[in-house]
Design brief:
- This protein has 210 residues and is mainly beta.
- The chain has three helices and ten strands.
- The strands form two sheets. A six-stranded antiparallel β-sheet has the order 7-4-9-2-1-10.
- β1 and β2 form a beta hairpin.
- The relative contact order is 0.22.
């Protein structure tokens, strides 16, 4: 595995910076919701066609064993699990010696670590993190997470509102950076609508009847 670069200038963007770490070879995570593995080539990055591209149905989204099974079953750098009108759930695996990338989002982000250990840097302040920890990054705040342990750093993160395409699957950080730089990993317009507009259009109502 490779250690992330330590001498770099932070490039503030609404998405991810161009800072990258050489990719580690990984196994594909394919058990969340019994999904089949995907073939990823240099010519075309993976998208999960089973994931809906429109607003979610008004029904349960259930992901069992998120803190118990992930260490042995997760390996992709990033996989979107669910996208809603006001939030998005994303699974991430940071390889040994790897990092998420020095970045600034325009959305809130809450990260729950399920396996491994690492170092978080939030607006210049460092904090060690480990399995069982929760870290919240407010919108517009610089942040970086580095895997400092001997095993993958695994977490699931909740963006509010969405940050990625609902079908996004990135095997490596490099693939994610490339898609975002080329505008291929954008949150859908419907995930950025105000509450009043969603209610007016009937996507949300207090009766719970649709």
């Amino acid at each position: 595995m490779f250690k992330p670069a330590t001498n770099h200038s932070l490039r503030y963007t609404t998405r991810r910076s161009a800072i990258s770490t050489p990719a580690a070879t990984t196994l594909l995570f394919n058990r969340i919701q019994n999904r089949r593995p995907f073939s990823i080539t240099s010519a075309q990055h993976a998208k999960d066609p089973k994931m809906p591209t429109g607003p979610p149905k008004h029904e349960m989204a259930y992901f069992p064993n998120m803190t118990a099974a992930l260490p042995s079953e997760s390996a992709e750098f990033r996989r979107v699990l669910w996208t809603g009108l006001y939030s998005q759930v994303v699974l991430m695996t940071v390889p040994v010696g790897g990092d998420i990338g020095d970045e600034v989002h325009t959305v809130d982000q809450a990260l729950t670590f399920t396996s491994g250990m690492g170092k978080a840097t939030i607006n210049g302040k460092d904090q060690d993190v480990k399995a069982g920890d929760l870290m919240v990054v407010p919108a517009g705040t610089q942040h970086q997470f580095v895997n400092t342990g001997p095993t993958p750093l695994i977490l699931y993160t909740i963006y509010s509102p969405a940050e990625h395409n609902p079908q996004t699957v990135h095997k490596t950080k490099e693939e994610g950076d490339e898609e975002e730089e080329n505008g291929k990993d954008e949150a859908p317009d419907w995930s950025r609508k105000p509450k009043a507009e969603n209610e007016k259009n009937g996507l949300v109502n207090t009766s719970g009847k649709y």
